[in-house]
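Researcher: Please generate the 3D structure of the following complex. Treat every line as part of one assembly.
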Amino acid sequence: MKRRWVSLGLSLLGPVSALLISAILGAFVMLAIGKNPLQVYAVMISYNLGQLDSIGSIFYRATPLIFSGLAVAIGFKAGLFNIGVEGQYYLGAFFASWAGVYIKGLPAYIHLPLVILFGIAGGVIWAWLPIYLKVKRGAHEVITTIMMNSIASAVMLYFIHDVFMDQNQGTLGAPRVRMPPIQPTARMPTMLGFLHAIGIDMPNYVAINWFLVLAILAAVAVYYLLWRTPFGYELRAVGQNPQAAEAAGINTKNIQYQAFLLSGAIAGLVGLSDVLTYFGYLDIDFPKGYGFSGIAVALLANNNPFGIILSSLLFGFLERGGLGIQALAGVPREVTTILEGVVILTVVTVTAIIGRRVRAYERHMAALATAAEPPIDTQAPGRGQ
Amino acid sequence: MHPDLILAAGVSSPAIADAVASAIRLTTPLLLTALGAVFTERGGVVNIGLEGMMIFGAFWSAWGAYTYGPLAGLAIGAVAGAIMALVHAIVSVTFRVDQIVSGVAINTLAYGLVRVASQALFHSATTSPSVPSLPRIDVPVLDQIPALQPLMANLSPLIVFAFVLVPVSWWVLNRTVFGLRLRSVGENPLAADTLGINVVLMRYSGVLISGLLAGLAGGYLAVEQTSMYVEGMTAGRGFVALAAMIFGNWTPVGAMFASLLFGLADSLSIRVTIPHVPYQFVNSLPYILTIVVLAGAVGHARAPAADGVPYERSGE
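Model: Done. Output below.
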């Protein structure tokens, strides 16, 4: 029992110290541009936690990040690096929007699930080529998925601007490059009614919606799949040591193929919270970058699905805080992008150092006691070492 | 771009030479970065952060050129790339963190740092003011032949530098003690270590060279090609250069031919319109080509044996 607490403490030590180091490095950036870091952090905290709409907004911003972090984590767990979540969710958002606009006459309880399935399909389709080329031709998924991201941007521009652009936008100003509005039957309702019913007086402009609940359910499902099913066991075995997995009779290529498509399926859901609730149409300027943030989210959580919920909330906090410090302290909100990069670097570095210390300590203890217990799982995030 | 302006002014020149000249201009940043990638990967360190190092180099060279002139600007850009490379080396060589994770973080970090720095220095997150370029050079004698004029006249010195760097890189890698040691560290770090070669120092050298050249390539885009910094101007070229290096089988000469191929695709994607094919897809040509090349190249290409594997002395 004591050992369990030590293990939990060690697994938290990495993320927590990484966050502290990131905050200190972020402070140097603020000093460099002539701002008082303590004041900036104080503004960020009071702006974020002092008002109800900020808290709602943090949950709203965390929603796509949970999906994105889960998609990246499934890849990592199978020894694959899915940088293509970005492009996969563009396609997911487009597929869902298409079904939301052009499939008509369905009741909401059929239309909305169908639209979500279209989103999943978009993500899977865009994930297919990189993993096919990986298992068949050995093409590294990192570069192919990055290229697929660039191609996805071009495809989106083509479909939204050249094929499906909304021609009935009225006469107010220049027409926007966007698709026609998604039908009400395909819109995801906000959680405001529910929140009001349980006595939380969330302001009406906050777009916190039921995708949040779906994202949390997805995290639970991913946890169950990876840690409680034979498929998940094989998937993690492939990620930890493909040669050993192959030797143990696991079809590694097949597992990686399925894992990557699953990753793409979840990636297809990333953009839906924004498109189906907040905007109600697909604009060429829909929110981008969730795929890359998902990498930081997954690494900070050491690919643990419940950790991903927490780290998504933290990044939602940072993004919302970015708006706050820009408006109230005159600090560019991109400081939070810097923090994202610094968090990735520090968390993996600190985890690697701690892991090494723990392994050295355990070797030492094992040398002392002949009856050694199984080692703590302190593997570095990502694709192991 | 200057040669195009001269063409527009009515200097007659064959269209093919003109197209090739455009392809060579677009090859240059890819070639510089791909040569750097050869050094880092032959030393056993994968550098997916080249894109971020290019972004960093592009911004800081524009700032340097704006403040101190083009030559100093390019030098500052190269050093800026090397600083990002140093972060990559510390994290992935010293702390032995997964090299791809480190590289991805570098890309995010460079993007954020450049946006903040651009707002602080240029009061615009996405563009710099116009900056001066290096004086253009003409290749003597050859620039008098009309058919070759677009290729030989009014060149950025960096284009010449990039192509001269190809045999130099080959010589350094294959004919110097440094090159031998770098390659040994990429193939079998344990054996190299046993022979007394400083594995960490060698790997740092490879990564830093790649950062210098990626930073210089970014500087070429900002100072030489566009005369200003524009956000997103690298447009994934760091990744394309990595693919070019793989397609070139981890050799300088191979990287050059692969970079020329990608440069040609880049130039076609800008200059050519194909009937019935949406321009967005034509613009994606370099990216599509990268995927095709990776899918086709791997199999007969061979990476250094210890490429991407952190080196850990036993007992540590």
